[in-house]
Amino acid sequence: MNTASHPFDQFAERLNKLERRNRRLTSMLVLLLVAGGLVLLGAAQKAERQPSESLVLRDSAGKERARLAIGKEGPALQFLNDRGQPLATVGTSNDALLLRLFDRNGHLQTGVALEQDGVALVNYDSDGQLQRGRGALLVTNGVFGRD
């Protein structure tokens, strides 16, 4: 037996094992990268398919002040105060145009609906009681007064 070739054979065998292991690790790494890329592409396609449900307008401080959204009743433009609470909405619902004004607690205070059959008006006082008759209407010009 030739002793000089024996260490060389061991070295060549170890080198072959190392190269096979390196090829397996490289193959696994490529498979992981491809699988990760496919997952990311799938997530990006799902995000592109979903239409935007609302458009948000923010003030200079970054606070949300208005939102255009599609709700259960239809499209609506909602105006928000500096605390993010609703002030008013303009929107549509079942063939009607709606204008809603909210109190400081976010409850409906006054609402006007332009419907096919006419105009509907609701007004609630500070206690949340529905106002009827002359109490539901302003006796003055309100915001529509001429200067």
Question: What does the model show?
Answer:
- With 147 residues, the protein is an alpha+beta fold.
- The protein is 31% helix and 31% strand.
- The chain has 1 helix and 7 strands; from the N terminus they run αβββββββ.
- The protein has one helix spanning 5-49; strands spanning 54-58, 64-70, 75-80, 86-92, 97-102, 108-115, 118-123.
- The chain has a 7-stranded antiparallel β-sheet with strand order 1-2-3-4-5-6-7, with no helix packed on it.
- The radius of gyration is 35 Å and the shape is rod-shaped.
- The model has no long low-confidence stretch (mean pLDDT 82).
Topology summary:
Blueprint lengths: L4 H45 L4 E5 L5 E7 L4 E6 L5 E7 L4 E6 L5 E8 L2 E6 L24
Antiparallel strand pairs: 1-2, 2-3, 3-4, 4-5, 5-6, 6-7
Strand content: 25-35%
Number of H- or I-type helical stretches: 1
Please give the order of strands in the largest beta sheet: 1-2-3-4-5-6-7
Order of helices and strands: HEEEEEEE
Q: In which range does the helix fraction lie?
A: 25-40%
Quote the distance from N terminus to C terminus: 117 Å
Largest sheet: 7 strands, antiparallel
Mean pLDDT: 82
> Which overall shape is indicated by the principal axes computed on the Cα atoms?
rod-shaped
What does the radius of gyration come to?
A: 35 Å
Number of strands: 7
| Structural class label | alpha+beta
Low-pLDDT residue intervals, each spanning 5 or more residues: none
